[in-house]
Write a structure and sequence with these properties.
Elements (H helix, E strand, L loop, with lengths): L1 H10 L4 H15 L78 H6 L9 H14 L2 H4 L5 H9 L3 H4 L2 H30 L11 H12 L6 H34 L7 H17 L4 H30 L1 H7 L5 H9 L6 H10 L6 H6 L1 H4 L1 H29 L9 H5 L6 H14 L2 H17 L8 E2 L8 E2 L1 H18 L2 H4 L5 H21 L4 H21 L4 H42 L11 H11 L7 E5 L8 H10 L5 E10 L10 E7 L4 E9 L10 H7 L3 H7 L18 E11 L6 H15 L4 H4 L7 E9 L1
Parallel strand pairs: 3-4, 3-7, 4-6, 7-8
Antiparallel strand pairs: 1-2, 5-6
């Protein structure tokens, strides 16, 4: 027992609150009054139900990388939201000096798959399929930038500025602009995201929250560095909020910009046509990014091949001008453009507001990493997307150098530089590509929201895994509907892409800055780089990000406030929900401390299993013939609903089962490994059960908790439940009522009298979020069973 306690405490050494709560569980396990027996045939160690991490402060959102994390569907049945939990698989016979992550050699294959021990590399066909899907889903936004980049740049510099300049000035100016475009893409996308940032993941996921999780895992306890932990969590929430804000703007901008090439004069008609396309676009999201990628992939691949061919066409047609523009590959011309050219200084800085359009969607590369993986994304980028974009920008710049009047052409620089005979086929392909462009942000939003639910920053929400073989491919129906509603409002309010153009850029560049700061923290804390090396990498990136961000501040007064307002609202939800969880964790810890110091055997205040056993012996309540299954978020904790219901009814069920549900990092759990039953006391009818589900297994009335327990290969448990599988129907009203009851706990939050208006508002928002999360009864598929919800009042 001492060896096991030592191992368990080493496992949670990074979480101070988790250590205290887990120590209580170890004390309970070491107590003579509580020695649960293992199921028949169970091995010592491998099948011990793993302890779950308690709700904790921000630092406890992270555990060791090799330990499986709970998928987004995880929930706390007692109403205390699905905090992120990890599972410890610790063998009793492992010596204390063994590493904490040591696993028993007889570990099951499905458990090993959760830690990547049996993760096979995809075949070349699967890899090419992933590359094709990434081309269609990830690169739509950044791939359609040539449609409006040069127009956006000269919207800042002046449309007539290029035509009014002399030949030498035009050559220097366009060479400097192309140099700025090329090096911004090279630094931000190729180097920052491709070489460094996408090397960092949290359980295969990317995005700001993934970086935050990696930093918090390395920092350790919140008590050690509270300011750094709070700052890191705030950066993660800011990056997530801005990505969602950008995800609401991008579909509207992409669709409006695409259909404005149609011969329709009325802005109102264009707006409603945009709404119709948006409904279709959001309607296909439920098919998942794999299926969408297989449809969008060929279209976007054709798009990149076409713009590559157009770039080669313009380069050959204007070969002399293309040779001049190609000097921009030399970084000297970037320096010349900024410090000695005609656009030096302030004008060059203003042009960055248009140049940033070339990297909009770069943040989606990282956010979508969970859908396709790093290698397929970067292979598609370097093999097809990046060369096509560079050739297209060279061709457009060469055409502008020969024909500066293209800027004033109503068709735009992109269409004006193409052969006249291809104008309409190119317009049709561009409309398809522009509509698809928003898919990168939509998939990224689903990914980061799934991470937010898993990490406990968002209420319990149903997350659908659209591919059994890839955990990162997710779809969230509620987020899809809310984003659609927001996009429809924006489309009808602004009506044209030019009215909404100012909203583009500010959210993206702020995300860039937050990502770079988080990258520095990862290099320093997780990768253990010295300060000089980390600054050598991050400081130049931060300068580039800062320049791009500051140039977009001028857009806030126009329509740049739109994504900021959306991001502030999302940040308020994330921070408030996380604050409420921390408050609940502190209250739980206080209750455990109070119980530890008291000698009372009152069943209403028993939170630990030894205390429950003692209370049941001493309370004297009559026992009924019913089976009471009490759902609890932690296998060491007794839910409040047990004592509350016993005190209200004056009796206890004859059989009490404390049920804990876990979600593993594998799509499916074998039936023989799904349920574990431990006997606390046969004499008192006290049992403890653990049920495991894979992340791709749906929970409904047909495949919910009750059906799982009845079908479990546990003879004792099956005998208790099989006779009472479902409620009696009207046709069988004479049948005796079932004696199996599922009891869940729901918390009702109130404000303390001494709190001020701001705190009251925060508690009210948290209470509203808790009330509107996915109900535990529906989540666990218990609608067809006798289920009770016991409400407990708790003040925050």
């Amino acid at each position: 027992q001492v060896g096991r306690a030592s191992l368990l405490l080493k496992e949670c050494r990074r979480c101070q609150l988790g250590s205290r709560l887990l120590a209580l569980a170890v004390q309970a396990d070491a107590s003579r009054s509580y020695r649960p027996s293992l199921p028949a045939g169970a091995r010592r160690g491998g099948n011990i139900p793993p302890m779950s991490e308690p709700p904790s402060l921000r630092t406890s959102l992270v555990a060791d990388a090799e330990l499986p994390s709970v998928p987004s569907e995880s929930s706390l049945p007692d109403g205390s939201r699905a905090m992120r939990r990890s599972s410890w698989k610790v063998a009793v016979d492992v010596p204390p000096e063994a590493p904490p992550a040591t696993r028993p050699p007889e570990q099951k294959k499905w458990q090993a798959a959760a830690t990547g021990q049996h993760g096979a590399a995809p075949s070349w066909r699967q890899f090419l399929s992933l590359c094709l899907g990434a081309t269609g889903v990830v690169f739509g936004d950044i791939g359609t930038s040539p449609l409006y980049t040069f127009g956006g740049i000269y919207l800042e510099l002046g449309i007539d500025a290029l035509a009014a300049a002399d030949q030498q000035t035009r050559e220097d100016e366009l060479t400097g602009i192309f140099s700025s475009i090329f090096w911004v893409i090279a630094v931000v996308v190729c180097f920052k995201y491709g070489v460094i940032v996408m090397q960092i993941d949290h359980n295969g996921e990317g995005g700001s929250l993934a970086l935050m999780q990696v930093v918090l895992r390395a920092v350790g306890t919140r008590a050690a560095e509270p300011r750094l932990v709070g700052f890191t969590a705030a950066l993660g929430m800011i990056g997530t909020s801005l990505l969602i804000g950008d995800g609401a703007i991008t579909p509207v901008m992409s669709v409006l910009g695409a259909i404005e090439g149609l011969p329709i004069e009325s802005d109102a008609v264009l707006a409603w046509l945009c709404v119709a396309i948006l409904v279709v676009l959001f309607g296909v999201q439920s098919f998942g990014s794999k299926a969408i990628g297989l449809v969008y992939g060929p279209i976007m691949s054709l798009w990149f091949l076409v713009i590559c061919a157009l770039g080669v066409y313009n380069t050959c047609r204007y070969s002399a001008e293309a040779a001049i523009v190609a000097r921009g590959f030399n970084p000297y011309w970037l320096w010349h453009y900024w410090f000695s050219g005609t656009c030096r200084g302030y004008e060059a800085w203003k042009s960055l507001a248009g140049i940033v359009l070339t990297v909009t969607g770069a943040e989606a590369l990282y956010a979508d990493m969970g859908h396709f993986g790093r290698r397929p994304i970067m292979t598609a980028w370097f093999a097809l997307v990046f060369p096509s974009l560079v050739l297209q920008y060279i061709g457009q710049a060469a055409a502008l150098l020969r024909r500066p009047e293209l800027l004033a052409d109503s068709a735009g620089t992109f269409y004006g530089s193409a052969p006249a005979s291809l104008r309409f086929p190119l317009l049709a392909l561009a409309i398809l590509a522009a509509v698809i462009a928003s898919q990168a942000l939509l998939s990224g939003v689903f990914s980061v929201l799934s991470q937010a639910v898993q990490a406990g920053f968002m209420p319990r929400t149903k997350v659908v895994h659209t591919d059994d073989k890839n955990k990162g491919q997710v779809f969230i129906q509620l987020a899809n509907l809310l984003l659609l509603a927001l996009c429809i409002v924006l489309a009808l309010a602004f009506k044209t892409s030019s009215a909404l153009a100012g909203a583009y850029g500010i959210a993206v560049t702020t995300t860039f800055v937050a990502t770079t700061v988080l990258l520095y923290l990862v290099l320093r804390r997780a990768w253990k780089w010295c300060a000089g090396s980390a600054l050598l990498v991050c400081l130049p990136l931060l300068v580039v990000d800062g320049l791009l961000w500051s140039s977009n501040l001028l857009k806030i007064a126009n329509s740049g406030w739109v994504p900021i307002v959306i991001a502030l609202a999302v940040f308020g939800v994330l921070s408030t929900y996380n604050w409420g969880r921390e408050e609940e964790a502190a209250l739980l810890l206080a209750e455990c401390d109070a119980e530890e110091g008291a000698a009372s055997s009152d069943i209403t205040s028993s939170l630990r299993i030894p205390a429950l056993e003692a209370a049941v012996r001493a309370c004297g309540y009559p026992r009924t013939r019913a089976v009471g299954i009490y759902l609890t978020p932690y296998d060491w904790r007794v839910p409040r609903s047990l004592g509350t219901l016993a005190d209200a009814c004056g009796s206890l069920p004859g059989t009490i089962v404390l049920l804990n549900v876990r979600f593993e990092d594998v799509p499916f759990v074998p039936a023989e490994e799904r349920v574990d039953l431990a006997v606390i006391s046969d004499e008192l009818g006290l049992y403890q059960a653990s049920v495991r589900f894979g992340y791709a297994e749906p929970l409904n009335a047909a495949q919910g908790l009750h059906a799982t327990l009845v079908a479990a290969k546990q003879p004792k448990l099956s005998a208790l439940l099989a006779a009472h599988a479902r409620l009696p129907t009207r046709a069988s009203a004479q049948v005796a009522a079932p004696s199996v009851h599922y009891i869940l706990n729901r918390l009702h939050h109130i404000v303390r009298p001494e709190h001020g208006p701001l705190c009251r508002l925060r508690v009210s928002l948290y209470k509203w979020l808790k009330q509107n999360e996915c109900p535990a009864v529906a989540f666990f598929g218990l609608e067809d069973n006798r289920t009770l919800e016991v409400c407990s009042v708790r003040s925050l």
